[in-house]
Amino acid sequence: xxxxxxxxxxxxxxxxxVCMDEYQDPxxxxxxxxxxxxxxxxxxxxxxxxxxxxxCPQCRADVAVPRGGAELLPINFYxxxxxxxxxxxxxxGTCDVCSRDWIAVQFRxxxxxxxxxxxxxxxxxxxxxxxSPKIFRIESGSSGNSANICPDHVDESCQLFCRTxxxxxxxACSCSSHRHHKTLPLNAHLQESxxxxxxxxxxxxxxxxxxxxxxxxxxxxxQEVGDCQKQSVARLSTAAEEACKYVMERLQTLETVIKTxxxxxxxxxxxxxxxxxxxxxxxxxxxxxxxxMQASDMCLEAxxxxxxxxxxxxxxxxxxxxxxxxxxxxxxxxxxxxSVFSVNLLDRHFYHFGKLGTLTNSKYSIAFDHKxxxxxxxxxxxxxxxxxxxxxVMLRAFVVFMLFQLVLYVxxxxxxxxxxTSVIGV
Length: 426
Hints:
Elements: H1 3-13, E1 26-28, E2 34-36, H2 37-46, E3 53-55, E4 62-64, H3 77-85, E5 107-109, E6 114-116, H4 121-128, E7 135-137, E8 160-162, E9 167-169, H5 171-175, E10 183-185, H6 186-295, H7 300-321, E11 325-334, E12 340-345, E13 348-353, E14 357-368, E15 375-379, H8 382-386, H9 391-414, H10 416-425
Antiparallel strand pairs: 1-2, 3-4, 5-6, 5-7, 8-9, 8-10, 11-14, 12-13, 14-15
Helix pairs in contact: 6-7
């Protein structure tokens, strides 16, 4: 492209509508027209509005200036790129990451609003953002070869790579400051780097597949845990309902047993009470007769009549006191504390619900004392035997005898008796 065409393009595309000169720090307006930053500030100051609004000099559209000032208006990178391509303006700036002023800024991160050099752009892409950032190139076309210029020797280009220092160097540097370092041609290093990056790409793709597979497996495990939780809760609820149902059934059964036993015992006691009431009536008759005899005259006929009555009264007493009946008391003793305890055995937890209480049957034999006429209880079964004199001693002797027999049996089975016999014989 000749100079005349470049001039025409500059006049058509790179000329500010306010200062009529080439754009200096071009900023794009909401109406998509572009003005220099200084021109925007001067138009805002000259605007009769509130200081935040002005009319576009080209389309007369109302433009609102950001609260932070005109500096917050976006840069027109399209104009900047044209200036770079036409070599009319070289973008100048300092890297906002490393702040090295001797390196030309070649990239801009729109998400972070930062100017970044070619040395910091890769780390910024990998580490700063969780997702791929929006990054634009702002380097000029004429500065493309300046990246290979040696910083120590301006007239030399970097043709070698120093492995020791991990940087590109020129031939002069390899003979001076990098004399004893490991070097190789820059093209060879680039080929190795290309192969390394391709290998890493393949590895990361494979690793990504593995990680995605692991994520799927974790989702399945999560689903399995959720399903197991739902099934366990449902089964626990069912077991609790069945346990409550079983307890209620047992409650009805035991209520029937207790009530039936109580009714039978009441009938036996009521049968004994008939003889008791009949005997009591005769005693009252005798008492009333003797009181009347004390108030009236004594006669032999009355004494003879009382003697006959007394003999009949003795027969009634013998009949009443000789009567015996059995008594069975069903007692339910509730537990003071009902709890749930668990036992861990081979990674299995066994849960047991504590007992509600104990139902006991106390069996008695009821007899009447001939002297006091009072009912006396006698325990039946094993508890009754234990109350007999000497029964406890006999039971203890039986237990000791059985333990002795058990020791002899174990000794014969294990050979200890033979060993003891041989030792004693020696």
